[in-house]
Structures are given as structure tokens and as C-alpha cells.
Amino acid sequence: MQMPEPPKIWDDKDGTTNVPHSSTTKSFSTQVWPSQSPHTQEQKMHPEEVTHSSTSDTETPPDETDLEETPGSGIPSKSEIPARKRSCFIEAIGKPVLLRSSPESDHMTAWGAVMRDAQPPSPSDANKFYITEQFTGKQLIEYATPEDFKNFRPTFKYSLPKAFRGVGHVVYNGSFFYQVDSQPVIVRYDLAKERITAKRTIEGASHSDGRYIYNSKKNYDFMDFAVDEHGLWLIYTTRDSHNPIVAHLNANTLESIFVRNVTFSHLDLGNAFVACGVFYGIGTVHFPYSHVLLAYDLLSDQHYTPPKGAIFTNPRQKSVMVLKMFFKKKGKTCVRLI
Asked: What's the Cα-to-Cα distance from 213 to each of 39, 180, 272, rounded to whole Å?
């Protein structure tokens, strides 16, 4: 069946779109601890070949020694599809920009994630870079400025209470979101308080036995976070399906707002990202050039013909992480994947 062409201009009205709810049947369990105002833009890639003090309070810290939870009761009964905050459809992808490259002898940072805060709480937070090294570990490294990052001058190192898994993390609104290693659990780590303030079990989600979310070599992600104008998203798959599942999350509680089960094999995707409420899938991140294979509107629940001109250029062919950055070119909304 012929998929519809994407609209040239989407209606920018703020009214809520009334669309059917996803038929996904996976359940979720959420646990949240009281917190103050949260203290992440997502970037996925080879961390060293990047193209492009805690707050005191009287709160008793939660017991973080056990992340096992009782299975949840299912998808929340009240599902709200958010109003589209920005009307756009990607037509072009910019070329990557190299910011720094580690020495060949530096094996500790051969792989990892590089991130910037997509919704920084302050102007100084907007300048920061964050990295994690390798595919699992318990340290998040912060660089206060781009110059510090380029010159390998870390300004702070966070000791995480639970090890992360993969490179699909994000820093958003002053918090670090990641999957706990070897568990179907996601957490929100508040950077100001230096502790976990919310966690959630994704029932049925693949998290072991090599059932990764993407087909890429050297990409060991079971779950992948994304951020766009509408907030925080989680991309994952399940043990009994080849479809990617995309959940829109409350960034404070990690509660599911709504879930989409995308009818497209995750084994055909090298990576993915979300922009303007649209889920985009890239064929590969290990060849010099690749194309966007999938364009699925998460808000209106429909597929669109992938943009033919959106070619992903990857000269180093080692990307395991994708960061989107918007820019304007000849009147078109473009995105640079780094």
C-alpha cells in the first residue's frame, strides 16, 4: 500500500490532536521519590570523535540498593496525545562537525556517549558537555564549557549509584536519564542532588541475550532515549516482537504518557531519533552514507514516505549515537546529526 506523502506544512495550531491510542500491551511500573526542581539534547556517537556541587536539602535519600520492582498494572488508562508544539518535517541532514578526537592509544574512551542538555536549567548549563565511557560504567563526566571539552579538561565527575547500559542516554532539564545495566529499568539521576529521583521498570522489554534495539555493529543498546520539542521519549523493543516501541515519558516521574508500537522491524534500523513528534529511523551508521528509512508520526499515528533528500553523512563510520541539532537553510527546517 502506498504510504501518504508528508505534509509540506503542518497545522501549527495548539489544539490537541484526537487520535487512536496505541494497542501496545506492555506494562510499566513506576516509583518516584520527592524532589525539587529538576536539575538533558541527546547525542549518540563515538565519544572522542564528536562531530559537532550538589544541592543540600532535608529530604531523606531513597534506598537505592534494590532496583527490583513489582510489575505494574499496565499502560495508564488516561492517555493524552500532546498538541504539536512545532510543525516540521526533516528534508535535509547536515554534515557532522568534528569537535575533538582522542589519541589512538586511549582505549578507555574508544566508545561511549556525548551529550548536551536539551533543556538547560541555566545559561551555564547550556555550555556543558557530558560523556560516558564504554558501554557500561558508573561515571558521568562533565565539562563546563566547549573549550574544556575540546581540551580534555573535565570539571566534575558524577559517581552513579547504578551502572548504565549502552550509549542511548540523554541529559535533559538537569537530569541524566539512562538504562540500568542488565535490567529492564530506566532511571532519572538528578545532577544537582547527585542521586536517583525516579525509576521505572519496562515490563517485557529486551535487556539481555543480545536482543539489541538496533542492527549496528558495536552498538549495544537495549533502550534508547530521545528528546524533542515535546519532551522525553524512550525507544525499545520486546522479547516477543521485532517492532520498535516508542513511549512518551513524563520527565519527572518516568510515567508513560502514551505508547506507540511502530510497524517496522527494528532489525532494519542502525539508529533512530525523534524530531517534531516524528520518529525517524536510519538504515546504518557504519557506512559513509545512509538514508532515513522510516518516518512515523507519533502524534497522529501514521507512516509517511521517508524524505528522499535526508542523507546521513558519516565520514568516520564509527557512530553509535545520534544527536539532532536544528538549523535553517534556504527556508527549510534541517537537522544535523552528530
From this structure: 29, 15, 10
What cell numbers appear for 256 in the block? 508513560
Residues in CB range of 167: below 8 A, 6 or more apart: 44, 45, 111, 112, 113, 132, 135, 219, 220, 221, 320, 321
Q: What's the rounded Cα separation, in Å, for the pair 309 and 302? A: 20
Around Cβ 297, how many Cβ atoms within 10 Å? Answer: 21
Residue of 227, 84, 236, 230 lying closest to 166 (CA atoms): 236
Sign of CA dihedral 31, 34, 35, 36: positive
Strand 332-337 to 93-94 pairing: parallel
C-alpha cell at 77: 488508562
In the chain, which stretches have pLDDT less than 50?
1-63, 65-78, 320-321, 325-328, 333-338
Structural contact between residues 272 and 243, judged by C-beta atoms closer than 8 angstroms:
no
Amino acid, single-letter form, for residue 220: Y
- DSSP-derived pairing of the beta strands 112-115 and 231-236: unpaired
* One-letter amino acid for residue 143 of the chain: Y
3-9: Cβ within 8 A, 24+ apart? 3/303, 3/304, 3/305, 4/302, 4/303, 4/304, 4/305, 5/304, 5/305, 6/89, 6/295, 6/304, 6/305, 6/307, 7/89, 8/89, 9/87
